Amino acid sequence: MALASTEKVILGSIAFAIFWVLAVFPSVPFLPVGRTAGSLLGAMLMVIFRVITPDEACHAIDLPILGLLFGTMVVSVYLEEADMFKHLAKLLSWKSKGARDLLCRICLIAAISSAIFTNDTSCVVLTEFVLKIASEHNLPRDPFLLALASSANIGSSVTPIGNPQNLVIAVQSKISFGSFLVGLLPAMLVGILVNGLILLCMYWKQLSIQKHEEVAAGEAVAKEEVISHRFSPATMLHVTSLNSQEPNSRFEPMDIESPPATANANHAESLRNCSTSNENEIHQVSSSAPASARNSTASKETLPDAAPQKKDEAVPSKVILSVNELNDVVRIHVSPTLLIFFCGMFITVEGFNRTGIPSALWDWMEPHAKVNHASGIAVLAVVILVLSNVASNVPTVLLLGGQVAGSAAATSAAEEKKWWLILAWVSTVAGNLSLLGSAANLIVCEQARCSPDVGYTLSFWNHLKFGVPSTIIVTAIGLTLIR
Questions:
Q1: How far is CA 255 from the centre of its chain?
Q2: Distances from the Cα of 454 to the Cα of 131, 140, 330, angstroms
Q3: Rounded CA gap, 300 and 320, in Å?
C-alpha cells in the first residue's frame, strides 16, 4: 500500500499522536481527559480530518472483539457467583511459600487460562481478583498486574484461539491446532519461566512477606470473594439469615424473663377473651361446613384446568427474573468506558493504517528482512515488534503475513510453516513491550483503574521498564525454540 496524500499523512499522524499521548499519559497537564476521551478524540479527528469516512470508521469497529469483552465481563460475574475465585484463592494460598511463590502461581494460571479462553478473557476475569490478592497481602500491585498481563500474552501464543492474530494466522496458513500447539509450546514454556524470573529480579526486595501472613490473607480473600457480589447466593443467604434473626432476638428476652403480677392478671383476662372468640369461631365453622364442602367439590372440578395455567405462568416469571438480574449485572459490573475506549482505538488505528505509513515502513525494511539468514530474522523481529506497538498486532499480521510467507515459500516450502509460527510468536510477545502493545495490557490497566474497591493505576513507565527487557529476552529465546 502506497503512502496517501501528504495532507492525509500529516493530519492522520497528528490524530494518532494525540491518541497515543493521551493513552500513554491520561492525565497530561494541558488535556487531562483520560484514555477513553483520548481514544474518542483521536477517532473524531480521523473523521474530521477526512483521513477516513464515517462509514469506514463504523466498519473499523471490531464488533466480535467488543462482544467478546462484553461477554467476558458478564461471565466473570457469574463465575464469581459460582465461587470460582474462592477456590482459586485457596489454590494460590495452598502450601504457599511467600509472595514470590504467589507471583509464580499467578504467571502460571494466567498463561494456562489465556491459552484456553484467550488473553483478553483471562485479563478481564482475573484483574480485580489479583488486585484483591495483592491488597490483602499488602504487596505492591505493579508486579502482579505485570505478571497477569505479560503471562496472558505469552500463554496465548501457543494456541490458534489464544488471541485474534493467532486466529488470523491459523486461517491463512491452514496450520492445524495440534501442529500450532506443538510448534510453539517449548517457546511458550521457556518464555513464561524467563518472564517470571525477570519479574522476580526486578521486584525481589518488594516481594517480602511471611508465609503465615500470606496464608491468612489468602483465606481472607476467599471469604470475601464468596459474599462480595451483591447478587451472589451467599450474600442473599447471609442477608436473609440476618433478617430472620431480628424478630427472634426481640422476643427472646420475653421468654426468659418472668412476668410481673399485673401481667399475670392481664394474661388471665386475655385467656378468657381467647376462649370466647374460639367458641364463636367454632360455631361459624360448623355452620359454614356444607358451603365449604360445596366449594371444595367445585374447586376439585376446576383444579385440572387451573394447574396448567399456574405452571405456564411460572415460566415467564422465571424468565423475567433472569432478565432483570442480567440487567442489574450489566448495569453495575460491565465497564462501558472500556468498550468505548476500544471503539475509539479501532477507528484511530484504522485511520493511521490508511495513511500508508506502516506499509511504507515494511517496504523500506523488506530487503533487509530475509528469512533465510539470522540477521534477516532479527530485522524481521524488530519490524514486527515496532509495527505491533504502533499499528496494533492484528493489522501487522494482516500486513506482513502474506509477504513473509511468500518470502519463506520462495526459499523453502518446508520453512513456510516455521515462519508463520515465528510471526505468531513475535507479534504476540510484542504486546509486552509497552502498555499499548496489546489489548490485554489495556484491559488490565483500565480494569485496575476502574475497580471500585481496590482501584490502582499501572503507569506507562512502570510497564515500559519491565516490558522492554522482558520482550527482547523472551522473543530472542523463543525464536531459537520454534519448530
A1: 54
A2: 7, 12, 20
A3: 31
- Angstrom CA distances, 40 to 67, 73, 119, 169, 189, stand at 19, 22, 24, 30, 38
Which distant-in-sequence residues (6+ apart) come within 8 Å of 209 by Cβ? 98, 99, 137, 138, 139
Is there a contact between 416 and 405 (Cβ–Cβ < 8 Å)? yes
CA angle 176-182-185, nearest 5°? 130
- Residues 109, 376: Cα–Cα separation, whole Å: 35
Q: Is the dihedral of CA 129, 132, 133, 139 positive or negative?
A: positive
Q: Which three cell numbers stand for residue 174?
A: 491452514
CA distance 146 to 144: 5
Helices assigned H by DSSP within 119-210: 119-137, 141-156, 164-173, 177-202
pLDDT in tens, 324-375: 565 665 655 677 887 898 899 889 988 988 998 877 877 787 777 776 678 8
pTM: 0.64
- Return d(Cα 344, Cα 159) in angstroms, integer: 28
Distance (Å, rounded) from C-alpha 427 to C-alpha 388? 6
Nearest-10 Cα torsion for 393, 397, 400, 402: 180
Closest alpha carbon to 180 in 195, 198, 168: 168
Residue 178 identity? G
CA 135 to chain centre: 19
Grid cell digits, residue 138? 499488602
CB 210 within 8 A of CB 98: yes
Q: pLDDT under 70 in the chain at which residues?
A: 1, 76, 80, 85, 89, 209-333, 371-372, 399, 402-403, 406-414
CA distances from 313 to 207, 302, 306, 318 (A): 58, 17, 11, 9
Which of 105, 92, 195, 104 is CA-nearest to residue 136? Answer: 92
Task: List the grid coordinates of 267.
Answer: 394474661
DSSP letter (8 states) at residue 415: G
Q: From its phi and psi, is residue 28 left (phi > 0), alpha (psi between -120 and 50) or beta? A: beta
What residues contact 349, with CB distance under 8 A and at least 6 apart?
16, 60, 391, 392, 395
387, 392, 397, 398 alpha-carbon torsion, rounded to 10°: -110
Of all helices (H) and strands (E), which one includes residue 481? none
Which pLDDT tens digit goes with each residue over 261-310? 444 444 444 444 544 444 444 444 444 444 444 444 444 444 444 444 44
- Give yes or no for a contact between 140 and 133, defined as CB atoms under 8 angstroms apart: no
The per-residue pLDDT for 402 is: 67
CA dist 464 and 445 (Å) reads 13
